[in-house]
Predict the structure.
Amino acid sequence: MTQNSTEILRYTAFSSDPDGGNPAGVVLDASGLDDAAMLGIAAELGYSESAFLTAPPEGLGGQTGRAYTLRFFSPKAEVSFCGHATVATSVALAEHAGGPGDYLFATPAGTVPVTVAEVNGALRATLSSVEPQVKPVDDADLTEALAALDWPAADLDPALPPRIAFAGASHLVIAAGTRERLADLSYDFDRLEALMRRLNLTTLQLVYRASESVFHVRDPFPVGGVVEDPATGAAAAAFGAYARELGLAKEEAVLTLHQGEDMGRPGELTVTLRAGDPRVHVSGTAVPISA
């Protein structure tokens, strides 16, 4: 199907500065596009992901008019869930269609509720992840990941052991022992991509703990055809589950993740954990950007 007449919006998520955060393409009406056309748009834009809205599955959201099917494409393939594109889409909907309020998205990973609210004059979206999971990583797979990164095992933080965390997509969490180690990222693209495809990983969530509740993070994304993702909402949700599972955060906690600094695109992601709620909540702003 054709993409020539499709309106494509461009937003950056997790920043109020158009030069910060993570850009995403947003198509609010993708009903006339097939998979090839959506992939073509994502590839042409070249962002880590772009988002495409169509009508919701029958029965989702009742008569609210705020329920949609939401799909995500990187320049190379469809992905199951993308947090920054969800935030961008939600803010775009609030600005172009329904205004602030509650939205409901049927994604390949499951149903994701989002609330958009005006905070200090800016629109801010909070997504609620699908139910997360955290599991160990095999020693051999971790060794291969570190070899691809060219990170010696001695450079890791022993207080934050590696795990594979899932909250709509799977991410391998590896903690650097110093901020300098995190800043020095030059990896073997093909080698890491091969490992990630074998393990069905979307990104590596590389982290440095600056304080009890503040982290700096970086996310290599070779499986999407992108060296590094500037701000990764899905990985932030997975990291929230990781922090809770390992007892790094209290039952009720708000974590701040700084991402994109080393790329010159700083962004801020807020991760909220709530007592008795298995989901992880990720919040951030989004603003339009020029082509």
